[in-house]
Amino acid sequence: MTHASSRITGVRSVALSVPDLQATADFFTKTWGLELTENKGGVQYFKGTGSDAFLISLRQSSGPAKLIDVSLRAASLQAINEIQNHLEGHGKVISQTAPLSEPGGGVACTISDNAGRIYQIVFGDTQNSASPEQKDRPIRLAHVVLNSNEIEVTQKFYEEVFDFSLSDRTKMMAFMRCNSDHHSIAFGDQDNNALNHIAFVVSDLDAVMRGGGRLKDAGFPIAWGPGRHGPGNNTFNYFVGPSNIVVEYTSDIEQIDDNYKVGAPSDWTWPPGRIDQWGISPMPNQTLKEAQSKVFFQTPS
Length: 301
Description:
It is built from five helices and 17 strands. It is of the alpha/beta class. It has two domains: 8-123, 2,3-Dihydroxybiphenyl 1,2-Dioxygenase, domain 1 (Roll), CATH 3.10.180.10; 140-296, 2,3-Dihydroxybiphenyl 1,2-Dioxygenase, domain 1, CATH 3.10.180. The strands form two sheets. Strands 1, 2, 3, 4, 5, 6, 7, 8 and 17 form a nine-stranded mixed beta sheet that branches. An eight-stranded mixed beta sheet has the order 10-11-12-9-13-16-15-14. Strand 15 (235-240) and strand 16 (246-251) form a beta hairpin. It is globular and about 50 Å long.
């Protein structure tokens, strides 16, 4: 049975290092619709219209883009302790719980799993009043999808360490839940452990579609979409941003509770040539497929 996590309330933010900070910052502000909220110590923080202090942070680095960490919001300080206590055999603590100096503050610890994925577990950060809705701008993160070459091991880590539960399993994806959203984290069954994509909630289907037009006008064509997924029932348009960072506009995420029946691959099949409910979009393009295996977690210092 699927259930909400007792330890994690949601995905908060994603931290990246990129080879061209200015180009990536311009993309996320001028094109994607985020707002630069702080530039501190060489790190730039970008917020949406929702209550989170920021959704993406960027810093300059040489070489290809790297995923520094995925930030999850803890339910309590006790939950952070429980996460650390359940790490044995699954991963390790990189840094102990300490105050944060980034926007929103709070405290956090940093951990990794045995595959080297890095997570910042945050509690007590300040959540702002949501901004008056600004047309078509991202509100919050919907989910982060990570590739996994050992998807059953990765699923077990999330279940035992973070108290997530499986919402649906398709042939290629495992969808994991921590709150009423159908999924906050998902895993693509791949031969690598790269970042697959970052999804941002916008207000509705029209915002997903207008976003597609805006990105196309800016030189970032739709790489997959428009469509409506099966698991999660959410609408989507996918794009490849600077440095092979794959991003998604989404809306209408299915809200579920403990009565939701976990789906198996046999529950999520499509006619030939179709991989979403509508069947009007071309298949994901090659640029997208390649980009989904190019941004890896950096090795912690």
